[in-house]
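User: I'm designing a mutation panel for Cytosine-specific methyltransferase and want to avoid disrupting the core. Could you give me a predicted structure to guide residue selection? Please restate the sequence first so the numbering is unambiguous.

Assistant: Good idea. Sequence first, for numbering, then the predicted structure tokens:
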Amino acid sequence: MHTPGPRKPEPITVVDLFSGCGGFTQGFHEFRPVGAEDSGPVFHSLAAVEHDAAAAATYSANFGSGRPDTTVPAARIHFGDIEKWEPAPEDLHADVVVGGPPCQGFSALNRNKKGSERNRLWEEYVRIVAKIRPKVFVIENVDRFLKSDEFQNLLSELQQTGLLADYRLVDPPGYTPADSEATKNSRYLLNAANYGAVQARRRTIVIGVRRDVGDGRTMSYPVATHTRRPKGGVDGSARPLPGTEPPLPSWRAVDSVFAESAVLQLRGTELPERTALIPEVDDVLPGVFTTGELHIGRNPEMLSMARYAAIPPNGNRKDLRDRWYTVDERNEIRIFDTANPPGIRTAVRYLSTESWDKHNTGTGDVMGRLRLGEPSVTIRTEFFKPEKGRYLHPTDPRPITHFEAARIQGFPLDFRWCGSKTDVARQIGNAVPIPLGMAIASAIHGFLRA
């Protein structure tokens, strides 16, 4: 007689608000419980809401009608303003709502002025959570969120008369009852590098749990898997002393990404000429491109190329001070330590700027090189512009590529992208790092399926 195997657990269902390209969703879909690494996703996305056409198209290409994994049901994607979206009946059974409602400002001006532009999107997030009533909600935002009016509004909505009165916030990592309010709030900041990302990126993560869920159990934040190596200290992966807990391994360095790209040829300066009809946005957009097709360069001016050449490993704009360059008769860039090098007939120009030279104590990230042996700095939406931050390749005379930025964020090689190269850069920079999303998914799974 055939004995049926153990029943497969029901998937944990998710609604993703302000979804962007789907970084949060990708992290949730990549998570696998211990012992089930070869199984399919345990989180299924029911719906996503996104107002940017290219980002919605990218979400569709991975999790909607264009998803490559058809063993998982397609997520329904609402392309448009969140104010015009109402959850479908099946969405009302979602276990989890995730999202990062954009904060329109962080000053104390117009505090509690309901309906104002700066509070509108925040109020929509609260409205939908209150309507769906998920078991867990997750808010992802910038570090300044914790000092914003929106965070105070969240705390007020959790009070007895608020829309989220049925919820309580999960205590942040390291919280003790002796903490001041400011100390407790600061603990909501998670660094993606602590969870295996090759990027030091601090994001506010606030988790709420419905009070009637858990049978008296308390949910916890994900446990860090890596730690910052103390300056002058020993790698955390060193062998522990007898009778002591093994230390956490040190933050992962960005080196692996550049080892990947070192064997690739730059694919020119433009994405492939390709378009696709995306039903969810009812339009034809550039794409679909895989992450592997994003290794494209730029067409910098000679001044930029000379700066890239003059900045050494671990260097930045300060290394351009008192340096000059020329483009010689053979169209080659030459760098000098003097404004009047002997024997040079072509025009000699200064590499730095008056503004940079005057600022000795400012950030060293401008025109800085990423450092091997360390995690990347935060990948932002204009990572392809080294004048915006430390976005030069560690050794090559160029900025990092879209491919390298996507891999630093943790996107897989087969992730699918839609939009112009500027659209794709914006999607990469705005995304939740995949390892951080996986860690949050792990904590939620441990709570809901324990």
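For picking mutation sites, this is relevant: Residues 117-132 form the longest helix (16 residues). Residues 49 and 387 are 33 Å apart (CA to CA).
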